[in-house]
Amino acid sequence: MKAIVKSTPAPGLQVMDVEEPQIGSRDVLIKVKMCGICGTDLHIYSWDEWSANRVKPPVVLGHEFCGHVEQIGSEVTKVKVGDYVSAECHMTCEKCYQCLTNQRHICANVRVCGIDRDGSYAEYVSIPEMYVWKLDDDVPVELAAILDPLGNAVHTVLAGDVAGLTLAVVGCGPIGIASIPISRACGATTVVGFDISDYRLKMADEMGADFVVNSGKTDAVKAAMDITKGIGFDVVLEMSGNQNGIDNAFKMVRAGGRVSLLGLPKSTITLDLANDIVLKGLQVQGIHGRRIFETWYQITRLIQSKRVDLMPLITHQMKFEDIDRAMEIMASGRCGKILLSPE
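Now predict its structure.
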C-alpha cells in the first residue's frame, strides 16, 4: 500500500509502498479517506532535536484521519465493516495511576500513532478497537479527519467556565483559531485573537473573533485592557508556546482569572510567579490532548449541532504525493489546516 514514511533519521519524508498492516483479534483495519497534517509532523519532517530524540525510523506518520472500516478482528464488537470512523491516536496503557483515575489523556506510558507505531498517512491503518470513534454521516469528512486537533481546542476552552465571560486566544494557529468559534458557541461574550501574523488574524476574524490584535505591531496588554475596560480577560487560552505570548497571557488576564496553556515552548521559559500568578490568584492549567472520550463527544456534538462552522479552518487539500509542498506551506504559516488524501 502507499504510505508517507519517515524512513531514515534525516530531514524529509518518503512516499513509498509498504506492507498493509495486519490486525489482531481486537484490532480494526481502516481504509483511510483523509488525513490532517499536524505541527508534530512538521517537526518530524524537519528532523529537529525533539524528533531525533523521540522518533525511531522507519515509521509511517500521521495521527489525524478518518475513513471506513475495512476489516475487523474476531473479538471486535464495537464497529462493523463499512462503518465511518475516526480514532483517538494516543494509545494508553490502562494500568498507570492516571489511566485508572480517569486521566487517560496524560497516561504515563502513552504510545502515539505516527510516532511510536505506524500511523494514518497510509491507505490503511490498524487501530485497537477501544480507540476507534464511530461517526454519523452528518459529520463532514474534512472535519472528521481533524477531530484530534479540534478536540484539543474543545479541551482547552472547556477546561473551565466560559459562558458569560470574556476570553482571549493568544496564538492563532489552527487550534487557536478553532477555539474562537468554539468559545462563542459555548457562551463566551467577547472573544479576541492575538497573533503576530496578519494572515492568521484575518482567519481569526473571519471565524468569529470580536477583535483581532497584531501583538507584533501593537501593545497587546494595553489593547487587552482597552477592550476589557481595564479589567483584563476572564479567560486566556495560551496557544503559542512563545515567551512573549506567555508573558502577555499572564499580564492580560484579570485577577482571579484562568490561563490555560496548550502551546509547547521550544525551550525553558520564565514566569513572574509572584506578580503574575500568586498575587493575582490565578487558576493556571496545562492542557494536553483530549479527555478520552469526553472531549470526543463534545466536539462531535458541537459539529452536529451546526452551532460552529469550522470548515473555513481548512485551507488546502492535497495528495500524499504533494507532501513536500504541503510541509513547505505549513512551515510558511500561511495556512489553516492542510488535508491529505491517499487517492
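The two ends are 11 Å apart (CA to CA).
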